[in-house]
Specification:
CATH architecture: Up-down Bundle
Main location: membrane
Distance between the termini: 65 Å
Helix content: over 70%
Number of helices: 7
Family: Belongs to the TspO/BZRP family.
Largest sheet: none
Order of helices and strands: HHHHHHH
Number of domains: 1
CATH superfamily: TspO/MBR protein
Membrane topology: Multi-pass membrane protein
Strand content: under 5%
Mean pLDDT: 88
Subcellular location: Membrane
Keywords: Membrane, Transmembrane, Transmembrane helix
Length: 166
């Protein structure tokens, strides 16, 4: 009883772990790649991203706790809703290494798959806990912007053909 706080805290912190590791692993590559890319005028400043992800990871982590709690923990009923959550979280964490390596095609494929998983997850969560689903709306909105941005950056930054110079 005295440690009931550990579950909501653990679920809330979990998304931050992968986000931090992605940043840490790619902290040198992303600025190098990112600065060279042609970006649209509506691209948010780089300093906004860590703030946005901190808020989004906190909301998604707590939302996952609500789903886990409402389904009675790791029960058979939790396999699909939490499985979708885990899968989207893995794709979320996979995006920075692709982008950090300037592999824009893989970053685009990743984020398009991520979008689909998040929508499916939210649909599966809606009947379980509407508050948890609503906590995911800012994340889905940010992903929509990030998807448009990734598409635009991918289109505007075609890879140079071997032997061609700028």
């Amino acid at each position: 009883q005295g440690r009931m706080w550990a579950y909501p805290v653990g679920f809330t912190v979990l998304p931050h772990v992968g986000g931090f590791l992605g940043w840490f692993i790619n902290r040198k590559e992303i600025p190098v790649c990112y600065e060279k890319l042609k970006k649209p005028s509506w691209c948010p400043p780089r300093k906004i991203f860590p703030v946005a992800w901190t808020v989004l990871y906190t909301g998604m982590g707590y939302a996952s706790y609500l789903i886990w709690n409402d389904l009675g923990g790791c029960s058979s009923k939790a396999i699909v809703p939490l499985g979708l959550y885990g899968a989207q979280l893995a794709l979320n964490w996979a995006w920075p290494p692709f982008f950090g390596a300037c592999n824009l095609k893989m970053a685009l494929i990743d984020i398009l798959c991520l979008d689909s998983l998040v929508i499916g997850m939210m649909c599966s969560w809606y009947r379980i806990n509407k508050v948890a689903t609503l906590l995911m709306v800012p994340y889905l909105g940010w992903l929509a912007m990030a998807t448009c941005l990734t598409i635009r950056i991918w289109k505007d930054n075609p890879k140079q053909k071997p032997g061609k110079s700028e």
